[in-house]
C-alpha cells in the first residue's frame, strides 16, 4: 500500500468541506499525513479531522498547489479540492490501477455536479473545440486538441485500460517526484489574469508531455460537488479574461511550439476559431460592453506574454 499525503486545497469550508473530511477519514488506506494548505492570513475552518496539519503559503490556486507538491515528504501525494467526496476504497482502487497500468499518476472517471449541461451546450462546446465528446478508438480517455481544449472519449470498451493527457483539478494521485519534475512553479503566469483557468489542464498536460503515464481508474467513485454558489459576482469577468488570455498562452506554449510547418498553420486556424466563437458567445450570453473590453484586454495580455516568450527564446 502507498505511503502518501493528502493535500486539500481549501476554499471556504462548509458542508462540502465536511463531506471531504468524512471521505478522508473513512479511507481503507490511511494517509501518513493530511496537510491543509491555506493562504497567509486565512483562518483554519471549524470543521476538523482532529489530526490534520495546517500550512500557510502565498494566496493563489497555483501557488498553493506548488507549495503542496514541494512540501510533500512521501513517495505519493493526493491533491484535492475542498468540494469533493469519494468512496472509502478510493485510494486503494486508484493505487491498484496505477500499479497494474505501470503509471506514475492516476485519475478517476469523474462525476461532476457542476457540469449539468443541455444537449445544446454540449454541441456548442464541441463546435468551439473547448470540449469535444465523441467516440475515439485509441488508448486515451481525454486528449488535448489543437484548439487548446480537450476531447473526451465517449466509447470506453470493457476491460481496456485507458490513459489520459489531462484531468480534473479536483483530484490528482501521483508520484511526488513526477509532480516536482514538471516544475509547476514555472506556470505562475496562470494567476496573472486573476483566475488561473486552466491550471488543471496545464499541470496534467505537463505531466503527460514529460513522459508520465496518467492511468484512468474506472471503478473508483469520486464526485465533484457543485461549487457554483461559492463564486463572487465578478467571477464571470475573470473567467472571460482567462478564456482569451490563459488559453492563448497555453496553446502557444504546449501546442504551437510543438508543431512545425503545415501543422503550425492548422493549429493557428484552430485557436483563431476557438477564440472568435468563444468570445462571441460569451458576449452574447452576458450582453454587456464590459465583457467585450475584458476579453479584448485578455487577448492583448496573452499576445504580449507570447511576444515576451518569443523574444526571450530568441536571445537564448
Descriptive keywords:
14 strands, 3-stranded mixed β-sheet, 316 residues, alpha/beta, globular, 11-stranded mixed β-sheet
Verbal overview:
The chain is α/β, with parallel strands linked by helices. The protein is built from 9 helices and 14 strands. Strands 3-2-1-4-12-6-13-11-9-10-8 form an 11-stranded mixed β-sheet. A 3-stranded mixed β-sheet has the order 5-14-7. The longest helix has 27 residues, at 289-315. The relative contact order is 0.13. The mean pLDDT is 93.
Short description:
The protein has 316 residues and is α/β, with parallel strands linked by helices. It has helices at residues 15-25, 61-71, 90-100, 119-128, 176-181, 199-209, 235-254, 262-286, 289-315; strands at 4-9, 33-39, 53-57, 76-81, 84-86, 105-108, 111-112, 131-134, 140-144, 150-153, 163-164, 171-175, 214-217, 222-224.
The average pLDDT score comes to 93
What would the principal axes of the Cα set say about the shape? globular
> How large is the radius of gyration?
19 Å
Estimate percent helicity. Answer: 40-55%
Order of helices and strands: EHEEHEEHEEHEEEEEHHEEHHH
Q: What's the number of extended β-strand segments?
A: 14
The end-to-end distance, rounded to whole angstroms, is: 45 Å
User: Which residues form runs of ≥5 with pLDDT under 50?
Assistant: none
Helix vs. strand class: alpha/beta
| Largest pleated sheet | 11 strands, mixed
Amino acid at each position: 500500500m502507498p505511503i502518501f499525503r493528502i493535500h486539500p486545497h481549501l476554499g471556504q469550508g462548509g458542508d462540502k468541506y465536511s463531506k471531504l473530511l468524512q471521505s478522508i477519514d473513512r479511507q481503507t488506506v490511511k494517509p501518513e499525513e493530511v496537510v491543509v494548505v491555506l493562504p497567509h492570513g486565512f483562518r483554519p475552518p471549524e470543521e476538523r479531522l482532529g489530526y490534520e496539519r495546517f500550512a500557510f503559503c502565498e494566496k493563489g490556486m497555483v501557488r498553493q498547489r506548488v507549495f503542496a507538491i514541494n512540501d510533500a515528504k512521501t513517495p505519493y501525494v493526493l491533491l484535492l479540492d475542498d468540494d469533493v467526496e469519494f468512496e472509502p476504497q478510493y485510494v486503494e482502487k486508484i493505487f491498484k490501477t496505477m500499479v497494474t497500468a505501470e503509471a506514475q499518476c492516476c485519475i478517476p472517471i469523474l462525476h461532476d455536479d457542476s457540469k449539468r449541461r443541455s444537449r445544446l451546450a454540449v454541441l456548442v462546446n464541441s463546435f468551439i473545440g473547448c470540449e469535444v465528446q465523441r467516440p475515439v478508438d485509441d488508448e486515451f480517455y481525454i486528449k488535448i486538441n489543437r484548439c487548446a481544449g480537450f476531447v473526451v472519449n465517449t466509447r470506453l470498451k470493457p476491460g481496456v485500460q485507458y490513459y489520459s493527457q489531462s484531468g480534473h483539478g479536483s483530484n490528482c494521485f501521483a508520484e511526488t517526484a513526477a509532480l516536482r519534475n514538471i516544475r509547476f512553479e514555472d506556470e505562475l503566469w496562470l494567476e496573472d489574469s486573476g483566475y488561473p483557468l486552466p491550471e488543471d489542464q496545464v499541470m496534467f498536460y505537463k505531466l503527460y508531455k514529460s513522459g508520465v503515464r496518467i492511468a484512468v481508474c474506472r471503478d473508483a467513485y469520486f464526485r465533484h460537488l457543485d461549487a457554483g454558489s461559492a463564486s463572487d459576482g465578478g467571477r464571470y469577468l475573470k473567467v472571460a479574461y482567462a478564456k482569451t488570455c490563459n488559453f492563448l498562452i497555453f496553446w502557444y506554449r504546449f501546442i504551437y511550439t510543438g508543431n512545425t510547418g503545415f501543422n503550425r498553420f492548422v493549429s493557428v486556424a484552430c485557436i483563431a476559431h476557438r477564440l472568435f466563437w468563444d468570445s462571441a458567445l460569451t458576449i452574447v450570453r452576458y450582453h454587456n460592453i464590459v465583457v467585450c473590453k475584458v476579453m479584448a484586454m485578455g487577448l492583448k495580455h496573452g499576445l504580449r506574454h507570447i511576444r515576451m516568450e518569443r523574444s526571450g527564446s530568441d536571445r537564448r
